[in-house]
What does this fold into?
Amino acid sequence: MKHDKFPGSIGRTVAESTPWWPAGRNHKRLKPNILVVVLDDTGWADFGCFGSEIRTPVIDRLAQRGLRYTNFHVTPLCSPTRTCLLTGRNHHAVGMRFLSDTDTGFPNSRGGIDQDVALLPAMLREHGYGSYLVGKWHLTPSHEISPAGPYHNWPLGRGFDRFYGFLPGCTDQMTPELCEDNHQVARDFPEGYHLTEDLVDRAIAYIRDHTVFRDEEPFFLQLAFGATHAPFQAPRSFIEPYVDDFAKGWDATREDRLRRQKELGIAPPETELAPRNEEVAAWASLSDDQKRLYTHLQAAFAGFLEHADTHLGRLVDELERLGELDNTLVIVLSDNGASREGGKDGAVDTNAPYSGLPQLVEEQLKHLDRIGTRHGGAHYPQGWAMAGNTPFRRYKQHVDLGGVRSPMVVSWPNGIAAAGEVRTQFSHVIDLAPTIMSLAGLEHPLPCDGRSLASTFDDAEAPAPRATQYWENLGHRAVWHEGWRAVTEHRQGVDYDDDDWRLYDTVADFSEAHDRSAEEPELLKEMVGRWWQEAEANNVLPLDDRTLVQLLRARPPIGLMSRDRLVFRPGQSHIPISSMITGSERSMRVAAAFRDRRADEEGVLVSSGDSRGGYVLYVRHGRLVFEHVQLGQRTICIADSELPAGTLEAGFVLHARVGHSAEAVLVQEGRKVGAARIPSTATHLSFWGLDVGADKADRVSSAYPADFSYHARSFETLTLDFLEKPLLEDVAEAMESTE
It folds into this structure.
């Protein structure tokens, strides 16, 4: 048989044949390794090397060996920025206008990146790179995050060889919902566990394996921390030292950071602080209680960031020990500006603002000792987010610089001769994929909206890679063109043609403190017209000014979230929180079906959430029990008679009421056996989803032992019905029994 592509020869026997093996690729000596570190919700001014009091010595050391980019931009939200990073494309153009949490039904916002778009890990893998993702993904549509996939939008489906981390936008740092490759991770979370440490352990393991088994080939590793997205959690030893540092308040912090930024050469000497955001009170006007609470919450953020930097140091040290650091291009950035989602007062428990039920300052002060712990995943008030974005205005979700200017550090000892220098060229996250491809000696496939920044590595005067960039989020819009930037903050319900546009000379006005629209009306008109041109070219339309909360709570007619009835079986996989069926805000009927049940059987039938927020139905000491907990308010309902043996159904009916409260009715064999009023329900109870026949995370209730699964085979199914209308007779009975 003839083999045209076989360079050897094939005879009748081995003795009469000549073997041949392809040469090793030996890319390692020619191409750099790539390490992209993405922090979450970290402000432009939060790294030490960008003017912060927060200790980030590892990132600072990378900056000293490389470059800081002070005019680098992202989008105002995480999924769009990660899309731009991995594609080199503007996010609307490839289906990720908003977060991956929802599909709005339009091509620009499908919750996933269009399947015909190549991602950086896949492109690099085709040319010999090993590709690894550790940490946050947030590019899989929520309805596809299930134990059975589908997996085409999971990391391995988009080009990564290995993945370990979490799929949605955020998670608890001490009891996270984890996935590895294409499956969920079932593991215990012992005292002292922290996600950041776990992620770095896995990153080190991937790199060690790669350098042993694929030592002739380079690697691409994306390390996407959960830090510093709320909930803020870190060992108290990292948090407590910062309490005194931030007692000065956010106004003084902004002034101190800008002064240091000027000293460091990352802000021009003439830079002014943008005016205080109007919704933020002057620090001096606050009460002593407010100051005390807010200071501790900012200390939690600072400790969280320093803790992440410390463990990033373990990875950097390992690269050096393996002899790989000098030939590794390291890029450190944040996915958007600091977040105001903690609201006016912040939270000692992030579940409060995420539930839409912020707590008063006096209530939060009772729990200062919990901040940062497993039971105190915190969020800071919006005033500290403003300080994190010094010297700019606004925050994450906005297209002002506080939302879209990101700190970026680039280090590559073998490829960047400059050390400790600053680069001021306008750049955007879409420029990173073509930059990485060009450094790997590869052409980025067209179309590509970004351009390589490689020319700026050794030339501080190299021109910006592009002349124009647009932004849009939640109706807020902006466009940059050749040094000028036009910005509008949209008000929901207002005609887009009536939005007030501002105009900034970004060369002369680094912080965009001075609106030039009145002086340059024709230029502003031209800029607004340019925004519409970019919108047409990049699939931005239709504009959608629903708020973040409204979009996150939208339920498209797809996935588990769209079903009225779900039938589960004990022992099946965990149902993640992103399924949108794990809350208690909707009226529902939950029924456990038993066949030939023995009277002494007991255990958890269903649990959702954890001890900070959740509900559980279990059998204990012969009786059916329902518990619901939300922000410290615990409701317990115990059946007034024992659960009988035999073949039967038992469960509860929950009737949602106006104002977040609800009525819970215990039911056995169609008969009411107990009722209780729940003072507060929520879509978001905690960061943990639902388990059938078990309570797998931080137990919802302490009334039963840690392993209290309902193991008996008699428990056959658990049926969950979401009710359009409550059963009126049950509501009346429940109200009567709890008045």
Summary: Residues 554 and 695 are 28 Å apart (CA to CA). The first helix runs from residue 57 to 65. Residues 726-739 have pLDDT under 50 and may be disordered. The two ends are 89 Å apart (CA to CA).
